[in-house]
Amino acid sequence: MPRSLTGALAHSFLGQSPGWYKTVIALFLVLNPLLLATLGPVATGWVLVVQFIFTLGMALKCYPLMPGGLLLVEALLLRMTTPETLYEELQHNFPVILLLMFMVAGIHFMKELLLFLFTRILLGVRSKALLALLFCVLSAFLSAFLDALTVTAVIIGAAVGFYAIYHRVASGNDPRADSALDSDHQLGALHREDLEQFRAFLRSLLMHGAVGTALGGVCTLVGEPQNLLIGHEMGWHFAEFFSKVAPVSMPVLAAGLVTCVLLEKLRLFGYGTLMPERVRQVLSACAAEDDAARTAAQRLALLVQGLAALILIVCLGLHLAEVGLIGLLVIVLITAFTGITDEHRLGRAFQDAMPFTALLVVFFAVVAVIHQQQLFSPLIAWVLALPGDQQPGMLYLANGLLSAISDNVFVATIYITEVKQAFLDGAMSREHFETLAVAINTGTNLPSVATPNGQAAFLFLLTSAIAPLVRLSYGRMVWMALPYTVVMGGLGWWAVTHWL
Q1: Over the stretch 88-140, which tens digit does the pLDDT of each residue have?
Q2: How many CB atoms within 10 Å of residue 402?
Q3: Could you say which of 166, 325, 408, 440 would form a disulfide bridge with 403 (CB–CB 3.0 to 4.6 Å)?
Q4: For the chain, what is the radius of gyration of the CA atoms?
Q5: In percent, how much of the chain has pLDDT > 90?
Q6: Are residues 262 and 171 in the same domain?
């Protein structure tokens, strides 16, 4: 242990992160004030965005909340944004924060039901291509009516359950007792090989599911937050929104599902890995034991969770309340009728969601910097200055590029506001306005799958408990999303350019 205060500071700064990583973050913090003084706030703002993306890319070295938070605290001190602007951004996105606080915790209390259902699917379907297609289709369907983060939380919960069972059995532990899932020290060589293959298997299913949330989320008014925003500005109801977007969303959905099957069949970009037979045997044995030993109280718990899931779907589908409040309803119903009264058991349900919630607040601080420094304004002005027939395609590309490095809700908000103002000023017809609105919606939803920070569901997956367990890093997510990015982004651009 270091004996001096300087040594203790160097050791404690960003904890167990590699020394080179600590040095890079320290250089960022020293460099930014110098850049602000020499190059100005706009150039420094773009540098800050790149630096924050770097912290996301190194999420497995250090959780991005700490280094990203330091960068944004410095940005506030340098007056690149203000606490008031950040607070306004948080107020605007409060439904998303509320969703993370309560909906993810609500999904935690449904984990027995999710594990039961997904175990039946996982063990009942031996074809990996069909299994991947089912994950993608189910994610797309659910995301068209539910929130993508909710669907992602369901997939993550099931994957963690599968991984935990096999890891504990392979380590010689009780599969139903808590153990250190991040340590492989107790595994033999044979189990290590199976575990690596199982990790690759789960990675592919997680990525198919995450992409499915984008494929379904673009289609409907409630699929993504920016869809609701755009639909409100346009005055579109649910069916009208679907029909307006369908010329782009439906071909992309079909192409995305075909891509899913081809990736598994051709075993490209990290896909195609099968479940090891020994892992299947372990999961099958545990499922059989659980079925045989299930008590009346456990059967009641499954029934309560199933009814709560039905209530969840109905409430979300009818938009009876904000998603986060519906999540709180699920927590109350399940805990009240399954005998969960311990404060500590309740607290564990919030462990997965709260770090990401805090990180999302930091992410919105980056958005506040972008907003205050007007980093996107020149690009917006350039697109709107183009000839009318070129605007949809370029607007789609501009939205896709910016959404891949920023918040797609923020990008959609800025663009639809500027385009609507141009329409109100008489610069375009209603028909052209609707075409541009579809281009904005699809542009912020489809190409943004290129990076984890482009989609909240992808970012949630990257920073979730399952990502380090299955070795799903930022770079690997970008690589595995690349074929989807090319197909979805390219076909979406072609449809916007030629079919609208």
Answers
A1: 888 877 877 887 788 778 877 887 787 778 778 888 888 999 999 998 998 89
A2: 26
A3: 408
A4: 23
A5: 33
A6: yes
Q: For the range 53-56, what are the long-range contacts, defined as Cβ-Cβ under 8 Å and sequence gap of 24 or more?
A: 53/405, 53/451, 53/453, 54/24, 55/25, 56/452, 56/453, 56/459, 56/462, 56/474
Out of 37, 57, 78, a domain closes at 78
Most distant CA pair in the chain, distance: 72
User: Are 24 and 108 part of one and the same domain?
Assistant: no
Mind listing the pLDDT tens digit for each residue in 12-35? 888 888 889 999 999 999 999 999
Distances from the Cα of 331 to the Cα of 98, 107, 316, angstroms: 14, 8, 15
Domain limits at 159? 83-499
What is the distance between the alpha carbons of residues 314 and 351, in angstroms, rounded to a whole number?
27
Closest of 102, 103, 99, 109 to residue 341, by C-alpha: 109
pTM listed for this prediction: 0.77
Same domain, 311 and 332: yes
**Are residues 239 and 91 part of one domain?**
yes
Q: Is the pLDDT of residue 1 over 60?
A: no
Domain count, the chain: 2
The C-alpha atoms of residue 451 and residue 405 are separated, in whole angstroms, by: 7
Residues 415 and 273 in one domain: yes
> Residues 271, 272, 278, 280: is their CA dihedral positive or negative?
positive
Q: In sequence order, what are the residues at sequence separation of 6 or more whose Cβ sits closer than 8 angstroms to the Cβ of residue 77?
A: none
Sole residue written with tokens 């892992």 = 279
User: Which residues of 177-323 form beta strands (DSSP E)?
Assistant: none
User: Of 290-294, 311-315, 475-479, which has the strongest mean pLDDT?
Assistant: 475-479
Same-domain pairing of 247 and 345: yes
Q: Tokens 């009814």 sit at which residue?
A: 307
In this structure, the answer to whether residues 294 and 351 fall within a common structural domain is yes
Q: How far is CA 76 from the centre of its chain?
A: 26
Query: Is 68 found in the same domain as 89?
Result: no
Integer Cα distance of 5 and 9 in angstroms: 6
Listed range (49-53, 173-177, 249-253, 404-408) with the worst mean pLDDT: 173-177
Instruction: Tell the burial category of 332 from Cβ atoms under 10 Å away from its Cβ (0-12, 13-18, 19+).
Output: middle
Check residue 180 and give its pLDDT.
Answer: 64
Can you tell me the distance from the alpha carbon of 193 to that of 216, in angstroms, rounded to the nearest whole number?
A: 35
What single-letter amino acid sits at 317?
Answer: G
The 8 Å CB, 24+ separation contacts for 309-316 are 309/110, 309/113, 312/106, 313/145, 313/146, 316/145, 316/146, 316/147, 316/150, 316/222
Contact (CB, 8 A) for 470 and 273: no
Which of the listed residues 20, 44, 78 is the one where a domain comes to its end? Answer: 78
User: What's the DSSP call for residue 390?
Assistant: G
Q: How far apart are CA 382 and CA 87, in angstroms?
A: 30
What is d(CA 462, CA 363) in angstroms, rounded to the nearest whole number?
Answer: 14
d(CA 156, CA 153): 5
